[in-house]
Amino acid sequence: MNTRPRMLELKSVYKNFGGLQAVHDVSFGVAPGSIKAVIGPNGAGKTTLFNLISGNLNVSSGSILFQGREIQGLKPHAIAALGMARTFQNINLFHGMTALESVMVGRHVRSRAGFLAGMLRTPATWKEEREIREKSMQLLRLLEIEEFADVEATSLAFGQQRAVEMARALATEPKLLLLDEPAAGLNIYETAEVGRLITRIRDMGITVLLVEHDMSLVMDISDEIVVLSFGCKIAEDVPTAIQQNPEVIKIYLGEDEEAVV
Amino acid sequence: MRDSKLLKIALLIVLVIGVQELTTVTDTQYYLTQLTMSAYYALLVIGLAVVMGYAGQISLGHAGFFAIGGYLSAALTTHNLVALQANPVIHGLGSLGMLVSGQDIYGEQLLVVAPWAACIFAVLMAAIIALVIGIPVLKLKGHYLAMATLGFGIIIYRIGLATEYFGEADGISEVPGFTLLPAIGSFGPISVSGDFGLRVENYYVAWGLLVIGLWLLLNLIDSRVGRALRAIHGSEEAAEAVGIDTAGFKLKVFVLSAVYAAFAGVFLTHYNGGIGPSEASVMKSVRYVALVAVGGMANVWGTLIMGVGLTFLSLRGVFGSYDDAVFGAILIVVMLFAPDGILSMNVKALFAGRRTTDEHEAKNA
User: Fold this and answer.
1) What is the Cβ-side half-sphere exposure of residue A209, based on CA atoms within 13 angstroms?
2) Residues contacting A172, CB < 8 A, separation 6+
3) Domain A1-83+174-261, what architecture?
4) Which of A238, A244, A186, A245 minimizes the C-alpha distance to A212?
5) Of A93, A119, A171, the CB nearest to B238
6) A75 chain-B contacts, CB cut-off 8 A
7) Residue A105 and residue B240: Cβ atoms within 8 Å?
8) What is the per-residue pLDDT for A5?
9) Which of A184, A168, A223, A225 shows the shortest CA–CA distance to A32?
């Protein structure tokens, strides 16, 4: 559907845990500036796939290209530095840090001060620190949580914690953002809010790949959807086609004839 | 925040000067000796506080780095190289001004490494050893890391005890003092030495070094690197996900703390005029960990206050023969009742029940 180079490209990726094939021959691409969703029943291998892309796990075989570059085998921090950020299914914030500080940590790869500059507090670090703080506040504003800037992030309400995590990921100025179940645990209003936010992020020029259970959200915002079942890709198409796909309907609703909404 | 930091440092400096003046007025200058030694130990302890409290790693081997600094500097400045004078390496060092010659008390010719060169070499070696040990060991977590660093500490202790070059059980004595700053104009030279007449001067050298070390660490904690370290402590996985090289940062901060420990070892050894194997013993390492814990882990100021205070009492012999037992007991009590350190303990809550610990657990849940 697109002739531009892919933002992310998976080529027959396999992942085995002992005898278990968690991911089996999965290939797909993500076009720049699009929102792509990975769906599938529990245990389909979605989160495993995410961890393979972000470098938290290594593939058993196959390759993963990020902006045309092989990233398989790189450490997560090196992949993050290339411009890939992620959120976690179970919120993963830094204990003992305020919301603002948490987001400031996200500026790490976009700033430079090292041990020596930090210890000597060189004038260059003052400017950098000011920039880090300002950019981080902007992101808190974007996510409408600036009033909690000085509150310890882990003590915030669930939805706000997700927002902090999202702001932290955005602070790295990613080209590709991986969202692992961004609507998990949110009510329908909050979910709709997250949907609007993801669309806004895409409009900022950031490519989004998300794993999600909430069908209404996925169908609303995704440009394309990949369906996994037992580690295999069974479909890849635009949302309207996925809704009509008999095999997808089967794995989601058993033999029922009704379409997924 | 920055202003309050500088204000606190200024207060500390005033306090340091005040204490010295007080000892002059009350004619209790003998306290300065233990206060000088306490300052050097505190330098090690605040470095360890950053490893433990901010990067979230434990080291039960820091007495080892202290000993590497102290022993190397002591050995190099006391072992006579006259017999090796013809050796091209020794000759080369001599022509670089890294050797000093003199006479020993029997009138024999003496050729030893200059203290400044020995000091630099000793600290550099501690840094290199920390790097080499740190790369494999810091991959471990929790108890495993504690055990591995403990093993390192034991090895250093046994090497000191078994090597003739390091004086075996006797250690090394008659370590010369060294000139920190040469005489400038009307100011005399400043030397690190246990000489009685230089007691006040050395008190200021030690505390000057501690204040500088403290200032550098406080700056670091407030910087991008400090934030990254706290992030690693908070969640290693999330820190990696935002691009923090967690293994690299852990290693660097470990090496930095080893450098602090080695500096403390070098200066204290030249001040004391010697070093013995007990400085490398495991009990010393445990004591340093206890001091960090009682100071409040992620609290450099608390660690400094507790480090100086308790070490001073220990050196004055207040704990008598139960010295090590006291530090062991402190460790247990702190872990049970004040896991965030004595200074941040909520005294009212302690009497009201066990709220302090419950809160801590809730925070970590």
Assistant:
1) 28
2) A80, A83, A85, A106, A107, A108, A109, A110, B242, B243
3) 3-Layer(aba) Sandwich (3.40)
4) A186
5) A93
6) 240, 245
7) no
8) 76
9) A223
Instruction: List the domain boundaries for chain A.
Output: 1-83+174-261, 96-172
Tokens of B89: 């390496």
Mean pLDDT in chain B? Answer: 88
Contact B242 A113 (CB under 8 A): no
Alpha-helical (H) ranges within B222-245 are 224-234, 236-241
Structure tokens at B118: 């020995």
Burial of B247 (0-12, 13-18, 19+ CB in 10 A): middle
Residues in chain A with pLDDT values less than 50: 1-2, 259-261
The two structure tokens encoding residue B109:
């010719």
Cα B64 from Cα B76, distance rounded (Å) = 18
pLDDT digits (tens, 9 = 90+) for B123-172: 999 999 999 999 999 989 888 999 999 999 999 999 999 999 998 889 99
DSSP letter (8 states) at residue A236? E
Which helix (H) or strand (E) covers residue A162, if one does?
Answer: helix A158-171
Q: Which of A94, A109, A121 sits opposite B219 (nearest CB)?
A: A121
Residue A22, CA atoms < 13 Å, CB-side half-sphere: 19
